[in-house]
Amino acid sequence: MNGKKGSVEIDIPPPNKAKQPEDGNKSGFQGFPCKAWIWSAWEFCKDDVDRVIFSFKVGLAVLLVSLLILLRGAYEIFGTNIIWSIITVAIMFEYTVGETFNRGFNRALGSLLAAILAIAVGELAQLTGQIAEPIIIGLSIFLIGAITSFVKLWPSLVPYEHGFRVIIFTYCFIIVSGYRMGNPIRTSMDRLYSIAIGGFVAAFVNVLVFPMWAGEQLHEELVNSFNSLADSLEECVKKYLEDEELNQAEFSEKVMDEFPDEPAYRKCRTTLNSSAKLESLADASKWEPPHGRFRNFFYPWSEYVKVGAVLRYCAYEVMALHGVLHSEIQAPYNLRIAFQSEIQDAANQAAELVRSLGKDIWNMKRSLKTSLLNRVHSSTERLQRVIDMHSYLLTPHYDLPDNSSNPLPKLSHVLPTTPYDFLDQEDDVCSTNHEKSSNHLTQNLTESYYEMMRKQSRRLNSWPSSEVDPFEKGGGFRIGILPQMRAVKSTAALSLTTFTSLLIEFVVRLDHLVEAVDELSKMAKFKHEDL
């Protein structure tokens, strides 16, 4: 209010300044984040430079065949039919040399068969007269389209699917053009030489200009899978033994497999999903001529797929170990640390063997793994003996000795020698203070059990919720819950047994991996090298 009584002051806010784009990420095109998009494209290119090279190679190949139309002299020779060379390059040019040759073979064979069929049917239709000719041509188009579409779905003919597609549109184009132009043979020949020119240009550019061999990619992909498996195994065992209180991930993170602090695990998960990629690279590699380090004809690329299958067979155990690492019920830290040296040694020896196998494949050398296998087996047998000798640590004890008046020794970092060193507070109270009042016993048991539940990070709605309910809901303590408490504690201890069993099973599966790598080295004629 300002001025005379009853007057009203109206405050008009000054016009706001136009909001400037943050960090220049938005341009005038309806707020399109140009800078963010450019940065994403830059990261995408930097992640794999071959993608940029492949793009420039495609552009170069298309430019070369386009010159046959742009240059007047070449256009007068080839005419408008040369446009099919551009289409052939665009369809045939693939990322690797092997895929390009495979696609080119399918296109050439499909075009040849379609041309032969079109010429035969066209000549036959011309002999029937002008009335029956279009009927025969239309019926043939229907039959060719239906038959080829059915045959390409046959499982053994799926790799030649592109060839069947080429048959359909090439046949239709030639026979329809021949019907209107009256010369199916000339139409077929023009189409074939145009395809031949485009296929030659695509193969020429792909092989001579920074070639990308599918065999090299398959070789590198398999070796990286070996290293990822070894890293994931060591990472999982390290976190299991070093984390005193394992941080349980949220349920949504477990479902989505989001573990940002475990990069090796994500790589191992990629290995499990690499079956289709390895098979695709192996199929493409069969079309490639001898090159680089792979100078043998009929190189055993299919053996790489078999080795990858055995490697995934081992990776399943590592994923199971990771599941134990992030399970809701965990063994007590002092129990896990008691077997630390044996578990760590077995995992390290196994990871070393896996890396050694991958290194031999990368160097294309064949070496004996007897010493490494013996060390892996020895460390695993030692772990088995320790688990067997001290199995009492992993089983429940409902009846304690009556004369155990002294406190039970705690579990140390060395191998334990007593079956009671990892029991919780309620067991000590029951054994040393048997003559105390039941109220005091009940209070101690309640506190110790509640503390154990808190450390295990169990939620009210997760298993085992029935044991947590009396304390979470403020209810009274029942003496009958003691066996249930011991059962939960036993289940937590047995999770260590599960972890060690999975580790031992992983070592057992390594024998099959060694055999698969040895078979690959024999068939690929790797250079023999004795250790």
From TrEMBL:
The UniProt entry, under InterPro entries, shows: ALMT
Sorted UniProt keywords? Ion channel, Ion transport, Membrane, Transmembrane, Transmembrane helix, Transport
Membrane-crossing ranges are 52-71, 78-98, 104-124, 131-151, 163-180, 192-214
Query: How is it placed in the membrane, per its record?
Result: Multi-pass membrane protein
Source domain of life: Eukaryota
- Pfam families, A to Z: ALMT
The subcellular location is: Membrane
**Which processes are annotated in GO (biological process)?**
malate transport; monoatomic ion transmembrane transport
Q: In the UniProt record, which is one GO cellular component term? A: membrane
Q: Where is this region: Disordered?
A: 1-26
Return the similarity comment. Answer: Belongs to the aromatic acid exporter (TC 2.A.85) family.
The protein here is known as Aluminum-activated malate transporter 9-like
Q: Which organism is it from?
A: Gossypium laxum
